[in-house]
Amino acid sequence: MPALAMKTPRAERGASVDYQRLSLRKHGQLAQTSHPEYTDEAARSFVARLLDMEVERRTLYGDEHLQGYHNISSTARIGEPAGGTAKAREPLADLYHRGIANHQAHQVVRRIIEASGLTFRQRVAVLIQTAKGDRRCNGPRGMSYEQIVANPRPWVQYLGWPPGAAAGMFDNAQALKDAAKSARLKLRKSVSDESTSCVFSTAELPYV
Q: Is a pLDDT exceeding 70 seen at residue 80?
């Protein structure tokens, strides 16, 4: 009788975990090689999540864009009659608190990426590649890698850098892709190796 293929408990756990549904803190902990439930997929998916959130921060969740973050005044309830209700405000209040949580989480992600030691060239490349993962073709997302290399101005502006910041940075499309790959590897090493990163040993990562 042929031997049955056996999965290790670690592999079984990794295969069944929906990492994107975990809190950012828990996901980060599972991405560390010192964690008993660490898997390669946990680390890869955590890096992908960090990069997605950094693109969000640069394009959607800056203070000036953050929906709900500045929309509620601290004096909003002044003058409310005795026995009045705040039910009409509850959806706005929920949006406000959710906005603060999103803002804080994205700022933590920014610091994790900065601490990983990516060069500016690597950061530009990997964030362009991450944002291009969005299949929508409007704006700069519709540019091919060859077009981006020839004219990076729309992309660096889209990601919040000065328009001339990446001029002449990549010789060709493959150079951009290689820089993005090296960025992911460096970021993965940074978040996986507890000896080189202390961010997950603190309570800084939010439960979002």
A: no
CB atoms within 10 A of CB 180: 23
Token pair in block for residue 111: 């610091």
Q: What is the pTM of this model?
A: 0.71
For 100-156, what is each residue's pLDDT tens digit? 556 778 888 999 999 999 999 999 999 999 998 876 656 667 788 999 999 999 899
Instruction: Supply φ then ψ for residue 113, to 5 degrees.
Output: -65, -40
At 41, which helix (H) or strand (E)?
helix 40-59
DSSP one-letter string for 4-32: PP---HHHHHHHH--GGGS-HHHHHHHTS
- State the burial class of residue 123 (Cβ atoms within 10 Å of its Cβ: 0-12, 13-18, 19+): buried
- List all residues 6 or more positions away from 177 whose beta carbon is below 8 Å from its beta carbon: 125, 129, 145
Q: How far apart are the first and last CA of the chain?
A: 48
Return the closest-CA partner of residue 41 out of 65, 77, 60, 16: 16
- Identity at 46, one-letter amino acid code: F
CA distances from 46 to 26, 33, 60, 77, 94 (A): 10, 13, 20, 41, 27
CA angle 173, 181, 167 (to 5 degrees): 45
> What pLDDT, in 10s, does the model give residues 24-79?
888 888 998 888 988 999 999 999 999 999 999 998 865 444 333 333 333 334 44
DSSP of 98-133, one letter per residue?
HHHHHHHHHHHHHHHHHHTT--HHHHHHHHHHHHHT
Residue type at position 201: S
